[in-house]
Design brief:
CATH class of the largest domain: Alpha Beta
Catalytic activity: D-alanyl-D-alanine + UDP-N-acetyl-alpha-D-muramoyl-L-alanyl-gamma-D-glutamyl-meso-2,6-diaminopimelate + ATP = UDP-N-acetyl-alpha-D-muramoyl-L-alanyl-gamma-D-glutamyl-meso-2,6-diaminopimeloyl-D-alanyl-D-alanine + ADP + phosphate + H(+)
Number of domains: 3
Largest sheet: 9 strands, mixed
Radius of gyration: 23 Å
CATH topology of the largest domain: UDP-N-acetylmuramoyl-L-alanine:D-glutamate ligase
Strand order of the largest sheet: 9-10-8-11-12-13-14-15-16
Domain Mur ligase C-terminal: 336-451
Organism: Chelativorans intermedius
CATH architecture of the largest domain: 3-Layer(aba) Sandwich
Subcellular location: Cytoplasm
Main location: cytoplasm
Number of strands: 23
Shape: globular
Number of helices: 17
Amino acid sequence: MTLLWDSMALVEATGGRPIGNLPDGVTGISIDTRTMKPGEAFFAVKGERFDGHNFTTAAMAAGAGLVVVSEAKLPALGRLAIPKVVVPDVRQALEGLATAARNRTRARVIAVTGSAGKTTTKDMLRHMLASVGSVHAADRSFNNHWGVPLTLARMPADCDYAVFEIGMNHAGEIEPLSKLVRPHVAMITMIAAAHLGAFKSLDDIAHAKAEIFAGVVRDGNVLLNRDDQRWKLLSKIAADAGIENVWSFGENARSQFRLVKWEPQETGSTVTFKIAGQELVGRIGAPGRHMVQNALAAVGAGYLAGADPARLLLALGEFSAGAGRGLRHVLRHGDATFTLIDESYNANPASMRAAMQLLAATPVSGEGRRIAVLGDMLELGQHSAKLHAALADLVAASSIDILLLGGSEMKVLADNPPAGPQVEYREDAEGLKPLLLRMVGPGDAVMIKSSKGIGFSTLVEALLERFPAAATEHN
């Protein structure tokens, strides 16, 4: 049994006091009893909806090695027969353990933020770096005030690389997380109208994303998108922060990591990258122009972390998109098949454009049609109606045959539909479900795209339940 943390080291890092006979150590860190494994430490974090202290009995039943609980809750938990580490504040204790994890590692640390592409770029880095060493990264989008410390606390002492995704909804959220992570390489994928409801302008979003510079280590690197309109602003903020090593990626001829050429294929792309002067040819195992951009950024970040870019690009041939982020399913429909593209995890104007381009490039067969199922883009504030209405031009340019719309924000697009496709609107995912199941046919290409909060993943589940799988495209 490999221990992640010695119990005494955990006590010291969290500033806690032990009660009971602590084990020699713990095999992992958990904040969720539904997924915890025997021998792990359970941190009873209090969230917006749940208080972990209410699940300490479940943690004991699941085989927790010890529980980390708050002093204020101890009277109610005193009879619980499990070793405890008692702390003033459980979330602060988790951050203390995160700090200790960062202090003990020799890994090259990469942090990723941006308005779109964060999780996919993080997943690409995890996939690529695993081909050249041991890598630690969250398997999900753990990018907030508890997800980042949790990912740090779970970091093995002996990994070669560590990759962290850092997100935000408001200004001031990224800086403390970046200071916890202390990256050797900090990357901003792009600036776009995401979470615009909390900001006055895209410049304000850029300043909030630039908070990632605050934690960059001495002589560290910043990687920026040179094709982005706010590249100059971001590079100036980086320089003002005292960061000397500012690199760029993109098609721009002055980028140190440059996209020279790309050719789309049904299940991926062939690419030519120029990485710090070296021209590399390879394949990306997930289709779409946005995937190429993410891959270029990921290879550049890997290079800055000391990895061989040729080996990184080679590994990307086996990369496939994740669930809700472009994962493709080929489903049977009678004697034929149709393609389902699952983009149900997130949506903003930039990622919506990328997804529509992906659908437009997806082949159909026979009498097949391209069907776009679009749900609300959330957190756009006063700009929401304008940005949803603007999707009409995007749809009109994307060879869409059928447009299914759902959600209150999409009503503005339904009331002023684009010329060309057949358009149907329902109030929500449940309203769309019978319509979608009835309309999909052999040879179709169907893409489902929305913000996670409106539940369009249930439409993906309904199609997967109704139609048997012919293949899931992992290339």
